[in-house]
């Protein structure tokens, strides 16, 4: 068994112990059992993760980088391509951290998703945009700010990014209406803003999969959110907006109430009936509703995940599966969604000690059980640069 490059001895031993060596870089040994990327590739799918640039849960951490190489064939920057990171001001771009991730992925033979070109929620826009003076012609100034951003990012990564979350989370979960921001108010409406973002991205990045990404989910309480996302996707289809896929974030919640499987199936069926593909873009499990005991908790997370992946992968339109971090220790859940008992959350496939958990086995089993994705569909949008439905 040969360890991936940049893999220190301790990491190599750990990886060997969990038997996941099988990096995607050419020339490396591929040992059984196969990596998640290999299992996915055998089905015409990809498996990957969000990753940072820094030395925590990032590519600058050699242990974490080795795990990424061992398990993934697609990556997405967790924060480094957001406006907050790329746009220190209206007039400046800082591509350094995002470039580091893209370079790492390329040197490891992995594809890259871009996240995101517009997060149309006031809370997640850069501080300098609040109260921004769009001048005497606000609509054209805001449109210019947005389109310049999208063109600059798409051109910077020309030929290096296969899929972009063009718009992220602009449907409000409480009532399904569209969020308003300084940019969308200046432009004169959120739907017009979303449409402009996708058209600009299509022109600037032909052949790249364009995704609307959101966190509507299958737990009770998501009904208005799902309905709002469907309304948005319908409205975009009516306008001929070039959207290829729905990014189903999949930050699942393990809780007492059973998931709304039937309602969820109806939701996804409606999405694919409109001609959209599906991307599982940010999978993890919030485990606050599970017992503290690790074995029971890990089993609960894995069982929920297996159900979810079996259902999602039953749609051939779903061919990319990305988790929002591979290791619990670096997960956003530790800070954003802590457990009330203070125990570290365990919603990722590997624990804080880089050991594979039952969740990894559940993902592997679900991918193994999935039908091969049809090859013709894979190339449709990539070949033509058009949406499948158009
Ligand atoms: O990097 C700065 C650091 O310089 C600063 O000192 C520190 C002080 O707060 O903040 C650091 O930035 C934080 C950043 O994560 C990097 O750690 C931001 O405050 C924090 O808001 C940011 O949170 C991210 C969040 O999106 C908002 O952008 C999470 O890491 C990230 O996991 C989360 O990801 C989102 C997806 O983009 C969209 N879907 C939901 C998902 C989970 O919330």
Would you write up a description of this structure?
The longest helix is centred in the middle third of the chain and has 19 residues, at 138-156. The protein is globular. Strands 1-2-3-4-5-6-8-9 form an 8-stranded parallel beta barrel, surrounded by 5 helices. Helix 9 (223-239) packs parallel to helix 10 (261-273) and helix 11 (294-312) runs parallel beside helix 13. The chain has a single domain (7-381), classed as Glycosidases (TIM Barrel). 40% of the residues lie in helices and 14% in strands. The chain has helices at residues 9-17, 36-41, 62-71, 83-86, 96-107, 138-156, 182-187, 190-204, 223-239, 261-273, 294-312, 333-336, 358-369, 375-384, and strands at residues 46-51, 74-77, 111-119, 163-168, 209-214, 245-248, 251-253, 277-286, 318-323. Residues 1-32 and 378-390 have low confidence and may be disordered. The protein is α/β, with parallel strands linked by helices and 390 residues long. Bound molecules: ligand G3I. Ligand G3I binds next to loops.
């Amino acid at each position: 068994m040969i360890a991936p490059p940049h893999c220190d001895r301790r990491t190599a031993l750990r990886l060997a112990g969990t038997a996941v060596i099988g990096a995607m870089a050419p020339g490396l040994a591929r040992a059984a059992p196969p990596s998640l990327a290999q299992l996915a590739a055998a089905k015409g799918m990809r498996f990957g993760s969000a990753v940072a640039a820094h030395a925590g849960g990032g590519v600058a951490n050699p242990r974490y980088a080795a795990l990424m190489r061992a398990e993934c064939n697609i990556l997405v920057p967790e924060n480094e391509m957001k406006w907050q990171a790329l746009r220190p001001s209206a007039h400046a771009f800082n591509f350094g951290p995002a470039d580091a991730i893209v370079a790492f992925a390329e040197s490891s033979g992995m594809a890259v998703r871009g996240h995101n070109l517009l997060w149309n929620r006031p809370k997640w826009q850069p501080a300098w945009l609040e109260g921004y003076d769009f001048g005497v012609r606000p609509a054209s100034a805001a449109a210019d700010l947005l389109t310049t951003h999208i063109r600059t990012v798409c051109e910077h990564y020309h030929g290096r990014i296969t899929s972009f979350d063009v718009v992220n989370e602009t449907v409000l979960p409480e009532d399904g209406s569209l969020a308003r921001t300084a940019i969308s108010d200046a432009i004169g409406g959120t739907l017009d803003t979303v449409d402009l973002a996708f058209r600009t991205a299509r022109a600037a990045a032909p052949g790249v999969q364009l995704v609307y990404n959101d966190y509507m989910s299958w737990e009770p309480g998501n009904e208005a959110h799902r309905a709002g996302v469907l309304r948005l996707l319908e409205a975009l289809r009516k306008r001929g907006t070039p959207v290829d896929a729905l990014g189903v974030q999949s930050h699942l919640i393990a809780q007492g109430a059973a998931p709304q499987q039937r309602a969820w199936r109806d939701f996804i069926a409606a999405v694919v009936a409109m001609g959209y593909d599906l991307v599982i873009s940010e999978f993890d499990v919030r485990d606050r509703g599970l017992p503290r005991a690790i074995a029971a908790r890990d089993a609960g997370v894995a069982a929920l995940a297996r159900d979810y992946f079996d259902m999602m992968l039953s749609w051939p339109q779903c061919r990319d599966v990305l988790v929002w971090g591979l290791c619990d220790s670096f997960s956003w859940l530790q800070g954003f969604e802590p457990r009330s008992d203070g125990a570290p959350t365990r919603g990722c496939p590997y624990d804080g000690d880089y050991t594979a958990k039952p969740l990894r086995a559940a993902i592997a089993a679900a991918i193994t059980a999935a039908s091969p994705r049809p090859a013709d569909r894979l190339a449709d949008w990539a070949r033509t640069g058009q949406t499948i439905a158009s």
